[in-house]
Amino acid sequence: MSLDDFPMEKYIIHAEKVAKPPKYLNETVSYDVDGAKLYPLFWPDGASHYGLNDSQQAAFRAALTQEIAVIQGPPGTGKTFIGLKIAQTLLKNRTIWHERGPILVICYTNHALDQFLEGIMPFTKDLLRIGGRSKNENLNKYNLRNSKVQRKSEAFYQIYRELKICLGKLKSIDNEFENILNYDGIIDFSSFDVLPHYRNSPFRHIAKEDITSWLLAEVNGDGEETDTMLPTLNVALPMISKTVPKSSKTDSDDEINSEFDDREQEADIIEIEGDVANLVPLITLREIQLKIYQLKCKLEEFIQTPLGVIRESLEGDNIRERLFQLYQTYDYLQNLVRVDFRIHLYRKNVLENFLMRLRNLNKYRHCSNPDMDPRLMNPDDRWALYSMWLQQYLQYLGRKRKQKKYKIYSEQRDIEDVKIMRENLVVGMTTTGAARLRASLEALRSPIVIVEEAAEVLESHIVTALTVRCQHLILIGDHKQLKPSTANYKIATQYGLEVSLFERMVNNDLQCYTLDVQHRMKPKICNLIRPTIYPHLLDHTSVMRRPSIQGVVPDLFFIDHKYPEELCDNSSKKNIHEAKYLINLAKYLILNGYESDNITILAAYLGQMFEMQRERKKNDMLLANVRIAVLDNYQGEESDIILLSLVRNNSDNKIGFLKIENRVCVALSRARNGLYIMGNMDMLCNNSSLWRDVKKTLEAENALGKSLELRCSIHDTITEVECEDDFAKVPEGGCTLKCGTELSCGHICNNVCHIQDRDHNIYKCYEHCGRRLCDKTETHICKKKCFEECGPCDYPVTHMLPCGHEATIPCHIDPLDHKCSTLVSTTLECNHVANRPCYIPTEDFPCPHPCDNRVEQCGHACTRLCHVKDDPDHLQYKCQKPCVKSRLGCTSLKEPHVCRRRCFEECEPCTVDVKKKRTLCPHVYKVPCNSDVDEIVCEKPCKTLLPCNHICKKKCFETCGPCSIKVEKNIPACGHKTKLSCFETPERKHCNKQCNQTLPCGHGCTNKCSQPCTAKCLHMKDCDLMSPCGHNVKKISCYENCNNYDLILLKYCTAPCGVKLKCDHICKGTCGACFQGRIHQRCGEKCGVYLVCNHECPIPCREACKPCEKNCTYRCDHSVCKKKCGEICVKCAEQCPRKCVHQACKKKCGDICSVGPCEEPCPKSLQCGHPCIGFCNDRCPRKCRICDNDEVSEIFFGTEDDEDARFVELQDCKHILESTGMENWLNQGDEIQMKVCPKCKASVVNTQRYSDYVKRAIIDINNIKQRLIGSHKQNEERRERLLEQVAFIQEKSNKLLGMTHLRNSIKKIEGRLQSSKQVSLKSGKSNRVKQPIDGIVLQALTSKIQLLRYLLDVCCMPENIFMSPEMKAQITFILDTLVRDEDQITVQEIEDIELEINRLRRIVEIHPRLLPKYATDTVTVWV
């Protein structure tokens, strides 16, 4: 925003004092105001509208006729009312301004915004509320979130639908997180199918009930656990390679609209990489509780039946046993699943190793190693395995969440939102929303901005909300109430941030219109702020008729006390006495008939508010709706009765912000009818003149004292309450006298005096009733309490029943309706004799005897009671006893395996592991009993004897082939012996020994026996031939001896070169090896230069110094650097260990410390008992000033014998040095290198006291390493530039014919650069990227490319039309030297090659003169 575009800049920046009309007003514009037509620029004097008083009318006029209006509204003067009338008038005349945009209403709080917009609703329905924190239900339909529905473009809805799906998937994952962390049960193992360890384990194919039994084996107490647990395990093992089942997908659309439309709570949209399955339980505590409840109900049902005792004795034992097992399971499971599952992870490494072996063992079912069997794991390991998978599953869910910016959605949404805003007449938002939606406000282009509570808003917030289109600004507030709040009090006061735009306009003498008639407070309450704060504030006639407070003598009172305040954990303050007193006072007022909504308790401090909320919980039913608020959050609100806690009461005589006039103004001006304040008046007056004025006002009203007078409205007694305990005198809101009111029942109310329920409609009389219950006799009277219903007459009366039996029954029951329960011996249809109740017919009475018929299907005895009328032949009976048959498919003849299921169930397959011998081979396998061992692919070693008498080395299932055992055989062709496979025939090609043949020259062959004999004998023979270089050649190869060419003699010249190289060393090569001084051999001397890390360079002189390859010696208290010394060290991010009782460093370990090393002496004592000679927080030196005086006081720096000398033991070399001298030593010199011990020159790296020196040196050294090696980005850019140069050279070389060697050399350099790129891309995927090519190598390749370009320029010279043999030889000679080392080239080599290229240039220049000589054997070069 530029100065020219700054809204209202002439008032805000240039501080003009006279406000002009808005730009949209001119002399012809007329307004309809309260039914009257007037011209705003010619407003008539004395005009009155809407029943406004004079001050309101002046403010109303200014707001409509000035482009900036400042309206001050003291408490209760109707700031909001006048603001609504201004808005009503503007809306009624909207044709004048609306084409430019809607009215923008800005408020500091959501409560104020809701209140203002609700007041506008009667004037227009075209209003919009921005933000989702509204608590006003009437405004819900005007909220932006609801206004968006079905008003968006198709492009927006396409993005919106995609984000709904993403949010639904996110909700699914979050729900699963919550379920797992709060789960009371065992999760189905199928959820772990996404984990690699689980997928490759046998658990994936085991039935759910068997996994449950496996986990609960300890509580089940199965004695045959190791043999019978997990019966499906062995069946599942061959199926390990089956396809992993896909998890079911879930999607949720819950609350998607509120999640996306709430702009104030909207966050980044989450993109989910995959879906997760719903959480499925194996067993839960809830299920077990339900089963226990069902069994207990069944047991009670048996007992309550007429024959319950008999039936309970028969079946009760079974139920009790099952109940006992369920209780055990519940307790066991509860102790495990309700404890953080991570406690089991102490066995994590053991379990991971176990799973790894289990996964790799494809033939697990044949292994007899007990360590590999899950069934033999102890209970702790089983639960640890489950817990580890559960944690890995949580980590898997965590990885499924991936953040993605929603920029496209946000931009599209903002465009659509602005369209909706512009369709309305009024748009309301908080200052926070306005600052956040700056871009939308620019597009909205509101011409009129109304700011409520403007004096409480930061100036920057209001300015941010204004745009260049703003023509009319109305500020409504009160700068004498709360100021804007900032995070830093010091900055706010020093730089004026607490001064609002409203107050600054007033300070700049811009006309401020103050409302002067208050409609809120009783006059005596208003006198507290008049005239001290508002000298001209008047009372409206309506406040004279405010009612007195029921049950309290004064309407205004200050309870003065000396009870001290306390400090809260958050540095806030609280006063427990005030909290308890005011809570009891609020309770008393409610007992006197006040609604809780009419009472508000205000606290000056946040800690006091929390303390009073804790006190309220003791009377939560009565005080639930009483509002307790902190003072700063209550501006702009009011209540019938205000209970104010000032909190401050201390021996320091400090009152904090209670001395600030603005806060005191708000505190004293919230009450309409009654105000009761608690505090220390003397301390307040000592710190503030304002409170001294308040005290005078209170004393004039007789409203200051140590106790508050309460009046009983029934007995008119007065009770003084000074502390919390005094409220016990008014327990029901009256007094301590007895009520004594006569009740409708004739008794007297015995309760203590109570204000509520004066008609005693709720009261319960506890006197004895005494009413007559029936007409049969006068002795049957009610014995209940008076308030209870008498009910029918229950006195016992004896009658003779029609059946002839005598029975005693309640008086109100007719004997004819009574069921006789006398037991009668009866012979039943089943011929059993039983005692039945008289009222039950014989045919309806169930026989209580147990069934004595044997079940034909299985032979077991029936467990039911006699049932001759219900399935007498047991055709539908399900026998619950254990099965006694063999399992299905059992092949055990010696001892069949008995089925473990119940008798009525189908027998289970026999899966018990047994050893079986195969019929196809002699091997034995451990397999399930019901399986055929011959169906297994036998992978054991074959035992067949081959014709060569060797045992076959193949697997048993493989066909025996030729014998592959290695044996020693004699080769007939050469007589040597060699090892071959048994089936192979020995030949000379198999021999790798030295050939024993003699060449024609008489020398032996130097090749291997399997190779052809050498054609050129390289054996060196003595000779004495003169070389063209002037030296005698003493040795020459055998095959070249007969060819006395100069080039051959030059090659074999062994005379020392002796030339001084560029490195100042003497060349150690020979005349022939150095090509007669043209290309010297590389220097082999040791470099010996000390690197910046203080290590000696180990590489030969011929190579450029490289980064140090030794291990880095830097370490700290937390970790050790594992890189090479030449690599850049990573800073330690842990907290710095420099910490003692005197000081502590606040920075990270790898940063320069915020404090120096502690200079205090070490308080510890050595083993000898003498004091330590070191410093606090340092490691104690091993030497003692007394015991080792000679060593300690040995003069080195010259300060060792000082009395106050302190010593430091270097941890790198263990030398003990005086600290002052060592500091001076370390501060010497400014060269970049590691600091060293002055005695032994060892690097000082690990001594914590001098860590800052080490860190500074490492920072400097890392910078040098970075420049030398180069960053990955720099090297990549340089490599790309070199590839471009290589491409240019390659293109240029393609124009030359017969230059294959040159092109190959170029391709070799290009390949090195290309391979560097590939390695870089691959290494970029790893966690630790190692630089594949550094700046040193790139520099060498740059030099080579420059030499190639120089060489290519010579080859392309115009004179070089024909290529002579000398030219070819020279080019080959240069290229061989150039590429003999892939990554290096020395300065000596560069100089030698440049000389050889110059030699080639001269050859090319003189070549035309020799053209006739070579015309017959040259080729055309330039095309």
TrEMBL record:
State one molecular function term (GO).
ATP binding
Q: Name the keywords, alphabetized.
A: ATP-binding, Hydrolase, Metal-binding, Nucleotide-binding, Repeat, Zinc, Zinc-finger
Q: Name one GO biological process term.
A: regulatory ncRNA-mediated heterochromatin formation
Q: Name one GO cellular component term.
A: nuclear RNA-directed RNA polymerase complex
Question: Gene3D superfamilies under this entry?
Answer: P-loop containing nucleotide triphosphate hydrolases
The keyword Transmembrane helix is annotated on this UniProt entry: no
What residue ranges carry the coiled-coil annotation?
Answer: none
Q: Where does the record locate the signal sequence feature?
A: none
Domain Helicase ATP-binding per the UniProt entry, residue ranges = 34-517
Q: Which PANTHER family match?
A: DNA2/NAM7 HELICASE FAMILY, NFX1-TYPE ZINC FINGER-CONTAINING PROTEIN 1
Mind telling me what this protein is named? Helicase ATP-binding domain-containing protein
Mind giving the lineage of the organism this protein is from? Eukaryota, Metazoa, Ecdysozoa, Arthropoda, Hexapoda
